[in-house]
Amino acid sequence: MLTFPDKKEITSEEIKAALDFSSAQVIRNLDTFTYSFQKAYSENGFYQPIPNDYWTTGFWTGEIWLAYEHTGDKRLKRAGEIQIDSFLERIDKKNAVDHHDMGFLYSPSCVAGYKLIGSTKGREAAIKAADQLISRYHPVGEFIQAWGPMDAPENYRLIIDCLLNLPLLYWATEETGDAKYKEIAEKHIHTALANVIREDYSTWHTFFFDMKTGAPDHGATCQGYRDGSAWARGQAWGVYGTALGYKYTHREEYIDIFKNVCEYFLTHLPEDMVPYWDLEFTDGSDEPRDSSSASIAACGMLEMSKYMTKEDAAHYTKIARQMVKSVYDNYAVKDEKQSNGLVLHSTYSKHSPYNTCNHYGVDECNSWGDYFYMEALTRLEKDWVLYW
Ligand code: GLY
Description:
The structure is a single chain. The chain is mainly alpha-helical and about 400 residues long. The protein has twelve helices and nine strands. The longest helix is centred in the last third of the chain and has 21 residues, at about 310-330. The protein is globular. The two termini are about 30 Å apart. The site of glycine (GLY) has 4 residues, from loops. Glycine binds near residues 161, 223, 233 and 348.
């Protein structure tokens, strides 16, 4: 297993300083972002407000809850409650929920609010979101479709990111006693891991199935550089997604999958342990980084460490601490005049001649990069009760 002997780990003092600054930054943002949400990505370092109609808005609410956990500040609690009202209205009106990102939206906002302050509206909204998510399940192929109308062959695919949407389903089963949510999660994770992971443990971003037979058809990228490369964030979703998969299923084979997918990620990092936006690129490249992938992978390593042997747990915890140290030292915002976000140099969606995505949020803060940075710090500060 790869180690990074010359890299420093983040200290307790640095974790506290980082969470103090992040929480203060979230509080400063409440004036603008209580009845509105942060756009998915910053522009020249600053987020603009948007309504609750995009797949990323739950991350901002998640930052509010993490800051509330850190400070106990009542203004944060009130803002989180106001945002939960918005999420309940959104799912009731079925506003912009025709996709699979119900977990990204409803776990860090509404499940979090229910767990932290007993919000009954949060519980109601999150169960409705779980119902919405399972409505996208295809028994033919046994997967949850990511995007677009359900009856078109060009949409008959899953994407690796969906692993983070599944905890909402496990939570819904625990909460309601109805096994249907968990059963669909288990079908999906099995199909996903059987198909998105390549022989060398790099990963496909998206994978298509035959609409008539459900047979696996082919992998393709959307946000990675090219079909055969490994999109950094997809690989990071794979790291955290298999850790969460293990948490909920305890399937022994997921430990090995985790180790191998993680090793691919780690062996393709540049010197400072924060990946370029695609793992094809490394030191010397002038392509932008995706700092969010480092925080996501760190959260996955810290989660998986709970279920491993002492030696393995120490190994992955150390790497997570080293990675978060680099994000803190080299990427985190330290002055509110520089940005109203938390972590710079992230990449949402970079168009290349070989991929199919739009071009936006390149080398900026993004909402999940900020959220997972705070989550990683919180995990390092205490025994954190997951929102996932
Ligand atoms: N889930 C979409 C992304 O990671 O950009």
